[in-house]
Amino acid sequence: MKIIVHDLDAKYNAALKEKCDDLIHADGKYAPCRGCFGCWTKHPAECFMKDSLHQACRIIGRADELIIITENLYGSYSPNIKNILDRSIGSSTPLSTYRGRQMHHTLRYGKHKLLKVIVYGSITQPEKATFTYMAERNALNDGFEDSRVIFLNDLSKLEDVI
To answer: 44 FRET partner, CA 20 to 30 A, in 38, 93, 96, 113?
Structure first.
């Protein structure tokens, strides 16, 4: 299953929807994670807040390929993308295991193939290094076999890299 999470304008939704099985638009019209861990324990992989991210844990957790399209913000995800990633913590469990010789949470939905992060906007070399390292760590933590980071200066080339 190919999932796209993006913070672009809504005008991109139709074109991106054709390229994936499910789409999450980081439009900011949802509540931030409250850190209650209910999606871990009380009602696994389901947020108690009944907004557009209610099922985000299940959607992201079942992705074979997760594509995140984000504006660069000092070498990190945009706030709206970060909010979605925070709300998807229920795609793992509170139990721990070793992956890559390090302790991580047990995956609720098993391993995934590819985490691809497409970054747009101006970005410095140190920010690129930070972003690449962060994506590698996110991929390991979330059980992805591989990660790729693509930096775009021009969004007109977005279709070529999805």
So the answer is: 113
Contacts of 157 by beta carbon, 8 Å cutoff, 6+ apart: none
The radius of gyration of the chain from alpha carbons, rounded to an integer in Å, stands at: 15
Q: 18: helix, coil or strand?
A: coil
Residue 68 has pLDDT above 90, yes or no: yes
Mean pLDDT of all residues in 15-28: 96
Q: Is 38 helix (H, G, I), strand (E, B) or coil?
A: coil
Cα gap 110→62, rounded to integer Å: 8
Is pLDDT at 109 greater than 90 in this prediction? yes
Q: Are strands 102-107 and 92-99 parallel, antiparallel or unpaired?
A: antiparallel
* Distance separating alpha carbons of residues 143 and 161, to the nearest angstrom: 22
| pLDDT greater than 90 at residue 88 | yes
- Give yes or no for a contact between 89 and 33, defined as CB atoms under 8 angstroms apart: yes
Task: Identify the H or E element spanning 151.
Answer: strand 144-152
State yes or no: pLDDT of 53 exceeds 90.
Answer: yes
Amino acid of residue 18: E
Q: What is the 3-class SS of 78-122, one letter each residue? A: CHHHHHHHHHCHHHEEEEEEEECCEEEEEECCCCEEEEEEEEECC
